[in-house]
Every structure is written in C-alpha cells, then in structure tokens.
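hey so u asked for the seq, here:
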Amino acid sequence: MTIVYALVSRQKTVLAEHTTTSVTGNFPTVTRVLLAKIPPSDGRMIYNYDDYVFHYVVENGICFLCMSDEKNRHRVPFALLQEIKELFTHKYGLEVPQRAIAFSLNEEFSRVLQDRMDYYNSAGANVDSLSSVKNQIESVKENMVQNIEQVLERGEKIELLVDKTDRLNQQAFIFERSGRELKRAMWWRNARWAAFLVAAGGFAIFFVAGLVCGFDFHRCKAH
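ran it, structure tokens below
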C-alpha cells in the first residue's frame, strides 16, 4: 500500500499538502470537490474513489485527509492521520488554523507531511501490526465506508487520474545518465580532434616557414 497524497484543511481552505514524488495526477482537484462535501463536525470517514481510497479525520473544524492506493487497508492511513493531527495541533494549537489563509502553513508543515508519509509508506506493514496502533485506531465499521457517488451530486465526479511514475522516473534517469555519458564522449572526441588540428596546423606552419626561411630560420635572420 502507498499513501500518495495528504493534506490539512479548514473546510475547503487547504492549509498544507504534500504529494509523493513518484505519483502525479489530478487528485488535488478531486480532493477540492470532496472537501466541500465533508461535514465540519468531528468524525472520520472513508471514501472509495475508483481504485483509490480517501481517509479523513475532522477535529475542531480541521480536516486531516490522505489518499491511498489499496482498499481494505485502513489502519495505516488512520495511524498516519492520527500522528499528523497530533503534530499539527502541537505546532499550531487551536486558534492559528482557524485564522490561517490558504497554504499559509504549507512551507513549514508540508515537510512534516512528507516525512510522516515516507515513514508510513516504508514501515506500513510493521505499523499495521503494532498493538498500540490497533488500540488507538478503532476498527472500521461498514457505515464508515462510502462510495464517492453517495456524496457527490450528478456531474460533480471527476475522473481520477493517477500516474505512478516510478518506472518512468527510472527510465528517465537511465536516459539522462546515457545522455550525459554520450555528451562526455562527444566532448572528448571533439577535444581530441581539436588538439589534432591545432598540432597539424602548427606543424604545417612550421613546415612552410622552414621551406621559406630554412629550418634553422637562417634566411629570415639574414633579412
């Protein structure tokens, strides 16, 4: 399972967000539509959206949301949201988020989101098996899981486009490395040709001068 996106918002106002570097898509746009449907009252919910899952927790009017790529795996996303909520509240308290404008906390807190997402993505299986997490995160009940069509009105659903670019990134890296190696080889070949031409030109000038002045230049010295 991979958690590909996370944010903190006050209703529709996004305060901070982060996307894993290996994934691109339009899910930030989809999330904005979804945020408009999330009630401001405290609670938690899971929305299935095609092959992806949005988990969210709302507390004191602040929404903590993440998107993962595997259904029926809920403890890890909720464990992530629980920790993000605690870190966010500890850092900003209850009043600052209520006054903050859009993305005003992004520069600071997006790094926290990135760090915690990287941790839970790399240690997800271990986190899922921890008894402490099992005790903190309540079992998900059926009525907590909804399909996105249940909350979006007709015409509001946007096709969720997600591009996992791990393989593309690897291919791009190989291509970039090959390009650098080819460029370096071409530079050395051109450098060798330039050195050869300079040496040949110098030898030709010396040879012509030798024919005119003598190779010891005594004829030119006489003049």
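The chain has a mean pLDDT of 77. Residues 166-213 form the longest helix (48 residues).
lmk if thats what u needed
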